[in-house]
Amino acid sequence: MFYERKLFYAMLCKRTSAAEKRSLFLYFTFALFLMKNVTNEILEVDVCPGSTVALQCPALAPIQANDRALAAFWYKDDQVTPFYMVDARSSPSINQGKHRQLSGLGNRATFNVSTSPAMLYLDVETKEDAGTYVCRVDSYRSLTRTSTVKLIVLSPTPKLLIYEGEKLLSDVAGPYREGSDLELTCELTGAEESLPMQVLWTVRGQVVDSTFKVLPSGKIRNDYRLRSLERSLWMVAVTCVAAKSANATHHPFLVASVQLDLFLRPLDVRISPTDGTCREGTVLQLVCRTWGSRPPAEITWWMKSFRLYNVSGHRFETDASSSTLSLVPMASEHGKVIVCRAENPKLPGVSMTDSVMLNVTFPPKVSLSLKTYSSSSLSEGDTVALICNVLSNPAVGPVLWSFVQETSVAPPHRRFPLEGSQTLVLERLQPWHKGSYRCRATNSEGVGESNSLWLAVRHRPICKAGQQVSYGAYLGETLNIRCEVEAEPATVSFHWGFSNTVMQHSNVSFINRGLKSLATYTPTDDIHLGSLFCWANNSAGEQHVPCTFTVFKPVAPNRPKNCQVLNRTHSSFLLTCEAGYDGGAPQRFYFRAKIKGSRDDGLSLSSPLPLFNLSGLPSGSTFQVSVFSRNKIGKSHVVTLETTTLKSKRKGPWTWKGNRSLLISSVLVMVFAILTLAAAALLRHRSRPFLL
């Protein structure tokens, strides 16, 4: 019988002694006898090639307590030789038995006897592995038992799979970098050899690659290489088609598709507004918008190589984003370029930019500097340039120059050769160029004024303007004559001379005090009358033209001139005159006024200035006024004139309301005011600013 042959073959193949063979023969014969009385239920298992199947062996179920399994065998179909066995004859239990793989099929099998039921795990490769598998278990006391499993190897279901390298793809492939290369592989497995197939690639219904090949394993493969992925392929389905022919793509056998997901670079970036104009110190907001990037681009702001972080208002949409930059530009940032950079974070190194140049408007920023044409200090005759440095936006109009003169010497009518230019060239420097200079520029945003630049001109002494040059004196009278000069440097020495160079000047003595020399001179004879000369020297040289002082006998003054009445009211008027020549001696002015036709002596006043203000007078009255001057020599001619107070609407008799003390106090107040104004005018004449 079938099992008897199996046992007999196993006994003959066992490498044992003759006695052991006799024992085994008797044992297996008895086992075959017992197997005839054991019922065997056949199990069916379906499996596909390329998978692992588990075959049960219920025959190895637990047996009686005083019994144990000696061996377990696996057979296929009607083969007499087991392909796998477990020998536990010399082991305490089947779990410690020796496993033997007795054929090529056994090399793909693993028998786990510790599970319930025991399982044989077999790697199924082809349809040839189908058949009937028998598990036989021999026990020490029990009958031999068997389990039968019918293994059905199914024909493989055709599959169409898409790979990227070793990675199996489904639904969506990627994401990939825009512009990168991609290679996809499509494999058809399990197709019947009798049914020839073609594997094709299509995009948007068009065949793009039909170069397939059949592998030795029977698989059909097509490798599709996409070079420089374009954004137009984003989420486009790339389809692999298995068909009987290239013309049968409308009726494919199998279809597999993947959509291409791409990282897309930005399409464009724009900054608004585009002119970047703002006023210094005000807030400028720039908005940068970009679109076309997936995922949305990140936006950064830059000024040269410096990143700007005062950013707000980030917004991200499907493929667009925006960012708002707030700046408070300064004048120094005028003309700087602001750059907006849009970059896909998944595509480092790939970016798009837009830029805007700042147009910062601001008032002129002005500074004044000096350019000399010699290495030494500035002296008379040198040339120097004053440069007015102007930084402005928008441009300025003509530059205005101002000069505060230090010397008392009046400058010529045409002060400077260049007026209104940013460069002021002073040629052939003179002492009157000494002083403080400024420049000023104006544009539509405001006015800017420079620093003050002091210009010192090294020059010989010159006479200071405005000093007394005529002295009247009696013979034997001692005069104090002051000679004052201006010089740079200010360390000077003086000497004096007289117009009559023959005479000795023992009657002249002087002392020096800085830039002043005080001479004491006593004329004792007519020959001593004439001109005194004063010279000064400093390190720049001797004074070119001496200061001249005339000494003469005083005479009576000339009469006042150009007298007129001003500010007439119903009770007051003001009389002003110009002083005539004083005759070489201090003069004083005298005023007399009385109502015309009146026998009253009227009012008499005197003043060092020809200025008289009268108040408290009767209205509608005519006054006779006389003015003259007097010095120590004599009296001038008298000037007479008439004036009338205005009539008042008030009716009734008028009386003389002249108050002598009131009139005197009014005159003194006016005299003090005039002296104050005269002193201020003199100071302004000595050091006054003027525009160039």
TrEMBL record:
Membrane spanning stretches: 662-683
Protein name (database record): Nephrin
InterPro entries, A to Z: CD80_C2-set, FN3_dom, FN3_sf, Ig-like_dom, Ig-like_dom_sf, Ig-like_fold, Ig_sub, Ig_sub2
One GO location term (cellular component): membrane
Subcellular location: Membrane
Domain of life of the organism encoding this protein: Eukaryota
Lineage: Eukaryota, Metazoa, Ecdysozoa, Arthropoda, Chelicerata
PROSITE patterns: FN3, IG_LIKE
Pfam families membership: C2-set_2, Ig_3
Fibronectin type-III domain location: 559-649
Record-linked SUPFAM superfamilies: Fibronectin type III, Immunoglobulin
Residue intervals of the Ig-like domain: 50-150, 158-206, 266-357, 364-456, 461-550
Primary location recorded for the protein, binned into one broad class: membrane
Keywords: Disulfide bond, Membrane, Transmembrane, Transmembrane helix
Topology in membrane: Single-pass membrane protein
